[in-house]
Automatic annotation (TrEMBL):
Source organism, top-level taxon: Bacteria
Keyword Membrane: yes
Source species taxonomy: Bacteria, Pseudomonadati, Pseudomonadota, Alphaproteobacteria, Hyphomicrobiales
PANTHER family: ENVELOPE BIOGENESIS FACTOR ELYC (PTHR30336:SF4), INNER MEMBRANE PROTEIN, PROBABLE PERMEASE (PTHR30336)
CDD domains, alphabetized: YdcF-like (cd06259)
Any one of the GO CC terms: plasma membrane
Name of the featured protein: Uncharacterized SAM-binding protein YcdF (DUF218 family)
Domain DUF218: 80-246
Bilayer-crossing regions: 43-65
An example Gene Ontology biological process: Gram-negative-bacterium-type cell wall biogenesis
Keyword vocabulary terms for this entry: Membrane, Transmembrane, Transmembrane helix
InterPro entries the record matches: Cell_Envelope_Assoc, DUF218, Rossmann-like_a/b/a_fold
Amino acid sequence: MFFYLAKILWFIAQPSAALLLLLFAGLLLIGLGRVPFGGAAVLIATAGLLVCGFTQLGVLLLLPLEQRFPPPDLKGPVTGIIVLGGGIDQHNSRIRGGFALTDAGDRLTEAAILARRYPEARLVFTGGSADLQPDGTTEAGAAAGFFRAIGIADERIMLESASRDTAENARLTKAKVDPKPGETWLLVTSAWHMPRSVGCFRAAGWDVVPYPVDYRTYGWNQLGLLSARPSLGLTQVDLAVKEWIGLVAYRLAGRTDALFPAP
């Protein structure tokens, strides 16, 4: 129920969609003769779109998430590498052929680099289908093909293909892997997604080593610049707001061990 409710609510609550719906509602009200209310709605929506699109509001919201967990200073052997889903489009990969990476494709490429660097480590990909109406294809299946294509042996690859969100990633992967005390498991996911991911794994009783990738910001000095592409600004705001809401919702539902997990 949590999965379906989150999907449906976010569809209309994401800032870009909410502002566009407000703009439409304002124009509709003006057309119906409710000019004061309609005009106010149009003004608010337009201002919101301009701020989100042209300023660095998205960067400001993303930076605390991305800076929360620094890259680890790895010493000693690595038992395994856990890769969270979200980096490959299973539908595009199946229909078009090849391996279609998403904006979060760094999750797979960096995991492949780590697998080469630590040849004894197991490689675990966790991710099923996040579709409201699954068609039987899973992200894990597409990811497995990608890892095999770049030369990673089948015996090193473990797949968890039933999870639909981050909390299920953590719970189902732990059950499948059954980690032992003293083992070192790296968690590879986007830097902006790392706080919630770590919180989910800790809540599942697994103290993983965060390995953030897929940074969407350059650093605090980026805040003085205007966004060169309004579409990018809106995307960053949507991404950041979703993650902050996710942190609150997951904590209230007991799916993470802290509101804003820290190192």
